[in-house]
Design a protein that fits this description.
Layout (H helix, E strand, L loop, with lengths): L4 E4 L4 H7 L12 H6 L4 E6 L2 H9 L3 H11 L4 E6 L12 H13 L4 E4 L10 H9 L3 E7 L8 H14 L3 E5 L7 H14 L4 E4 L7 H10 L4 E4 L13 H10 L8 H20 L14 H4 L3 H13 L6 H14 L9 H15 L8 H8 L11 H8 L17 H7 L7 H9 L1 H10 L4 H4 L13
Parallel strand pairs: 1-2, 1-8, 2-3, 3-4, 4-5, 5-6, 6-7, 7-8
Length: 464
């Protein structure tokens, strides 16, 4: 009987997709021991937007959060999401910072590092993969899935082979917008299983309503593991429900390793947590519904919740449909990048800027300019020549790996901020988010109530 490995996402992607990563440690610390006993293959609990959100909104040290989770979770692998050379920030960092961050993540308790590049430019994940292996972690290479005129099965299989040749321990197909159909999942998983020897995992969302069907066809094709969310934090822009998949897979003759009685305990624990976020307005009912329009504009859950928050701040929520229709046009102009962080933020915010300004590219984001210059890697397709000319003029875009142009900065920064950064982890926090981390690090010795900001229960900012 084949076992299907289940990764629980409630502590990271589920809450990131539904409540913009606003769940403090105190909301889930009391259930960690039961999650550890449930029989999961892994618990995704860190990375993604959690790091930024801890510092910016929750007044928590993200490294301390990881250590506390590790102290409670003794038997189950901890898993995180890493954005290649972007780490957990929104630009490329030098190799010395990438290596130090990976090493410290593993030293502080991380087991599996799922590493992806927003453009599927594998030059950008080589250093993180190499350091994960050297530090004794599990390197999971990622195929970022999207649909466009230039993305096809052959391209994805080649990426899978290249990842295996790089030395990854497993491969994840990352369908961040929930747009992968059951047939596409079956075909891609089957093709990968025929061409690579490492385990293959699939990550999707419930946004379009395809999630459960897609997972079941992937299982038929031989997938080794899937990502699910405990049911109270599942559905909508989150992942399909853990309990439902556990029930269905066992009926089909597969093993999951999960204890359904403990799953009920976990779900009962998170029900009032969910209710709290509904009552204080952070959990918008919009993100709980099925939205088949996502098959057109391909917006992932975290991007959608952030777009709503951004427009709400500017009293322009009535422009949401217009912005959603502008997103695929911007994406085409930028050479069909997959809509995953940081590209999803860039494309979404640029689309919003185009709509709110009443003129396309009247304002061009600095991150979009950097992307066009080649600072994020090689675009999947051709960027609109007129847009390139508007941004670069006669300047040529970068051809090589952008990180090769960056000087080491870790030791230099460590000396510059030694008055308030006490550990290497502090230095890494500062390098990723200088202003936010400096404020946090300088104030952390003060009583928590004195420095807690009102944004814990307010949705603010794009970069969550």
């Amino acid at each position: 009987m084949k076992r299907i490995f289940i990764t629980e996402t409630v502590l990271r992607d589920a809450q990131q997709s539904l409540i913009a990563t606003r769940m403090p440690l105190e909301d889930f610390e009391g259930i960690l021991d039961r999650i550890d006993s449930a029989g999961y293959y892994s618990i995704e609990c860190w990375g993604g937007a959690t790091f930024d959100s801890c510092l910016r909104y929750l007044n928590e040290d993200p490294w301390e959060r990881l250590r506390k989770i590790r102290s409670k979770v003794k038997n189950t692998k901890l898993q995180m999401l890493l954005r290649s050379q972007n780490l957990l920030g929104y630009k490329h960092y030098p190799d010395d910072v990438v290596r130090m961050f990976v090493r410290k993540s593993i030293e502080n308790g991380m087991d599996i590092i799922r590493i992806f590049d927003a453009l599927n430019d594998l030059r950008n994940i080589e250093v993180a993969v190499d350091e994960t292996i050297k530090a004794g972690g599990h390197a999971q290479g990622t195929i970022v899935y999207t649909i466009s005129p230039i993305h096809n099965l052959e391209m994805y299989v080649k990426i899978g082979k290249d990842l295996e040749n790089m030395g990854v321990h497993s491969i994840c197909i990352k369908d961040m917008a929930g747009i992968m159909s059951p047939k596409e999942a079956y075909d891609l998983v089957k093709a990968l299983k025929e061409n690579v020897k490492v385990p293959v995992f699939l990550h999707t969302h419930s946004t379009t309503g395809l999630g459960i069907l897609t997972y079941l066809k992937a299982v038929e094709a031989g997938v080794d593991g899937i990502d699910t969310a405990i049911s109270s934090f599942s559905g909508g822009t989150s992942q399909p429900p853990t309990e439902t998949l556990d029930y269905a897979l066992k009926q089909m003759g597969f093993e999951t390793g999960l204890n359904n009685k403990i799953l009920k305990e976990i779900n009962d624990f998170f029900k009032p947590v969910k209710d709290k976020f509904i009552q204080n307005g952070i959990l918008n009912p919009f993100v709980l519904s099925t939205d088949t329009d996502a098959l057109i504009y391909q917006i992932p859950g975290g991007m959608l919740s952030n777009l709503i928050a951004q427009l709400k701040q500017q009293n322009a929520l009535d422009k949401l449909d217009e912005v959603l229709m502008e997103v695929p046009r911007v994406r085409e102009d930028l050479g069909y990048p997959p809509l995953v962080t940081p590209m999803s933020q860039m494309v979404g915010t640029q689309a919003a800027a185009n709509v709110l300004a009443g003129e396309r590219y009247k304002v061009i984001l600095k991150e979009v300019k950097a992307y066009i210059k080649g600072e994020y890697g090689k675009p999947p397709g051709e960027i609109n020549p007129e847009l390139v000319k508007k941004v670069l003029g006669s300047e040529k875009p970068i051809e090589g790996r952008f990180a090769d142009t960056l000087e080491p900065i870790f030791e230099k920064t460590k000396q510059q901020i030694k008055d308030f950064a006490k550990t290497d982890e502090d230095v890494l926090s500062y390098i990723l988010f200088p202003q936010v981390a400096e404020e946090f690090l300088k104030n952390r010795s003060k009583p928590k109530t004195a420095q807690m900001r009102k944004i814990v229960y307010t949705i603010e900012g794009l970069k969550s």
